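We close this part of the discussion by returning to an individual protein. The amino acid sequence and the C-alpha cells for this protein are reproduced below:
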Amino acid sequence: MKLQSISLAVLLSIGLVGAAQAAIVGESSDVSKIEVAATGSLGPNHPNSGVGFGIQDFYNGAVVAFSGFNGYADGNGVVRLNPYLPGLPPTHAAIGYANYKQVPTQDVWFGEWNAEAKDASGNRLGTVDPTTHTVYYNGKDADTSVPSTGTANYSVQGVNNYNGSNLLSGTFTANFATKQLTGSLSDSSRTFNLGTATINNDATISGSNASWTGGPSGGTVSGQFYNSQTSLAGIATFAGNRASDVAFGGKK
C-alpha cells in the first residue's frame, strides 16, 4: 500500500488547480489498479477538480474527480460505475466496476473497484474479477495532529462487494487520550470489526487486528482524520483474501 499526500499549493504553482491550499491525502490497497490523487479539470467531460481517483487500466490511470460521477449514485448515495452503463462508448470497456461514497458534507471519499472478469479467450463475462478487488480512500483537509484528550463518536459506512443493498454501517469511537479507535460495521448478514486501531500523533490510523465475524481475521487497518477530526476514512486489508478488503468513511 502507498500513502499519497499532495499539497494543492504545490499543484497551484504549476497551474493545475485553483486557489485552495489544503492537503489531499489518500491511499489505495493496490496502486497498480487504482491511484488516488488531486486532479484539475479535464475538459468539458470532466470539469470538476479536487479529490480524485484513477483506474490504471482506463486511459492510463488519468485521475478524475470523484464528484464528477455523482449522477450515478444510487439510493444509498453510492456511486456505481460499470462498463455497461447506458451511453458509455466502447472505449470505456476497461472502466471495471467501482463503488464509492462521499462522507456527508466532507470532500472525503471511500470505495472499492474490481476489473471485469474474462474467460480464457479474453471474452468479457459481465461480472467482477475478485482477484483484482481494490479498496481506497481520499480526502481534502487532512489533519496532521490530533488532541491528547477527549473522545468522539463517528457515524461510519463501508463498502465490501457492494451490490446495492449491503452497505455497511456502524459507529467508531475515537479515544484521543488512549490513542485508540474501535468499532464495527454491519449489514443484514455480515459484521466487520475494526479491532483496536491506533490513532497516531500525525492523525493517521493504523491497526493489525481487523476481522469479519465468522470470517478472516488479522486485517491491516490504515486511515486518516480530516478537517480537525470532523471526519475520517480508511481501509482494512486481509493478506491473501483481497475480496474481504473494506473501505470506510464517516463523520462525527
Summary: DSSP finds one helix and 20 strands in the chain. The longest helix spans residues 8-13. The chain has a mean pLDDT of 90. Helices lie at 8-13.
